[in-house]
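Q: What does the predicted 3D structure of alpha-galactosidase look like?
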Amino acid sequence: MTRSTTRIAHLRAAGVSFVVELRTPVPRVLHWGEDLGELTDDGLAALALSADAASLHCALDEPRQFTVWPTQADGWSGTPAQEGHRAGTATAPRVTMTGAEESPAALVIALRDTDAGLDLTLTYRLDPSGVLAVRTRMSCPAGAPGPGPYDLASTTALLPVPNRAQEILDFTGKWCRERSPQRGRLAFAGHVREVRRGRPGLDAPHLLTVGVPGFGFRTGEVWALHVGWSGNQRWLAERLPEGAGVHGGVLGGGELLTPGEIRLAPGDSYTSPECYFAWSAEGLDGLAGRFHTMLRSRPGHPSSPRPLTLNTWEAVYFDHRPERLLALADDAAAVGVERLVLDDGWFLGRRDDTAGLGDWAVDPQMWPDGLTPLAERVHAHGMQFGLWVEPEMVNLRSRLAREHPDWILGPSAGLGPSSRHQYVLNVAHEEAFAYLLESLDGLVAEYGIDYLKWDHNRELHEAVHRDAHGGDRPGVHAQTRALYRLMDTLRSRRPDLEIESCSSGGGRVDLGVLARTDRVWASDCNDPVERQAIQRWTGQLLPPELIGAHVGGPRSHTTGRVADDSFRLITALFGHAGIEDDLTARTPAEREALTRWAALYKEVRGLLHGGRVVRGDLADDATYLHGVVAPDAGAALYCWARTETSVPAQSGRVPLPGLAPGRSYRVRIRTEAGLPSMHQVVAPAWYRAAVEDWVPMPGTVLTGAGLPMPTLNPGQALLIEAAATDTAH
């Protein structure tokens, strides 16, 4: 790598600047955040001069610096960028820059840790969306010094944030309550989240955000991190009393490694997961917009209209009588479904969840003619045919477990407790990998499968690989890489195949798995009250077209709550919409309502899956206002919903976010999904008029003054459509 002749590297995109001073021994981060403009040499020099902090009492004699590879060698007492050792030595990393290359969109810095005998390549890539992706490659060249391999404990990508970032938001959750926000003050300490589940988990941090106190959806300066990895993870936000150089604190993340998991012998290397950092001066919607723009610009991002999907799980569960499923396919086609997915229960011995996992062949007792009759019926209706699989798991009551017990990921001393009656298949075992690849590829080819719902229903506890001599080695990293390779190889063989990431619902929602899948199943919960929150926060990272959102039956199968048709239908509209219900059990009137809703989805999905997601900052937590606005602000569709009762009797004027104040609009209430019931005698006048016809409204009224929203009963929602009546300028 050649040395850069530029002393200061400045990457810019979409209102973001990232500035690094390429000095020795270690470059330092001068700025990450708001665009500083096209700085002259004098301006860059001034930025570097202002990056020297004061020297403090009882501290280092020289001002602390925040470098691109912060360690104690810089006087950094927080989480270091590198931890590891070589047989108990080389525990104090001290790196030196050996070269750097800069392009308009990327900065690559080469570092050398002479004591540990390691070469490091640190890559910063600033996406046109303004999202900064950071990745590290660590290699051990031939002739590395010292005894034994280098045992890598961690690498952490770290970026600075200013002192004003004193409030933190991240997420937790459980089954059917994924991505529940938790928010508070960022104190002088480390807010550290370590994921040890072998997947991001139902309680995943999802997107760790720090910002100025009081930041909301539409306002406030915020900085955020996502760890794009489907295995164990570490996330942190950290503030020390002395700061981080001239900065106030740091955001950081990476893979959480088990001791002994990565051992670098001469010739070996390790590449970290990509960590994604984003900044916005426009609150959480600004962050979401950056991630949505980045994801939509991927070459493999779904480009065809997202088909209305029916999944059979809550319709039939394990009752796979072919005649019942053929009738369901007919009814699905009649209401406008475009993809039917056959869920769990189709393979050998699968009558419940205690047996069969791993035996990926159609059960001839249940399906004497194979899946051909159903696949042909589905395709004859012009629908796509999808299939549920769980390749990474195995039941002990299966032919695979009996014949290949060594393929199970678990300790030599014996397997621990099962979860959902299943264990983990070691996908990194080459024979197991080959078996899965050929089984899945064969099914796709035989039945013309268009779509796989790829599930993952247990956590990876005691995930160790057993060798022939009874030696146990940590296996989560290898398992995650093997999963990626399996998906990538299958997709290379079947480029038209689409895959959904499902993991006990929303337990594997990350940008690592989304690099090779086409959507996520946000949650096993279809209760619209819960779904309003789950979809809101899943959308903080992912655009609606990547989020599976289905209409369930009137009574939720996971909560028991009964919800009106209109609330269920409107909630499911704001995603990749589908149905999770037995249509054969619905009345003609109910199927007609679904047919109208299906037509509405097809009409508006171009807007929903290509526009900007916006959310209103409301004082009443029982109400939701969210929507999608066209890129030119010429059209929008909003949901106004209430999930529970609250003290305020009226909402007052509520602005519609995202529209252009200087434009003229008309608004109406869409009624295809039904109208809500009200907790009032007479609705506001504009609402009554908008139910009947379009109502003209200036943009200043809609975005500035706002509209007085009707007071809905709990568990109710309505759709507001806005359309510009002038030409954008």
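A (community wiki): The structure tokens above were generated from the sequence. The first strand starts at residue 8 and ends at 13. The first helix runs from residue 41 to 49.
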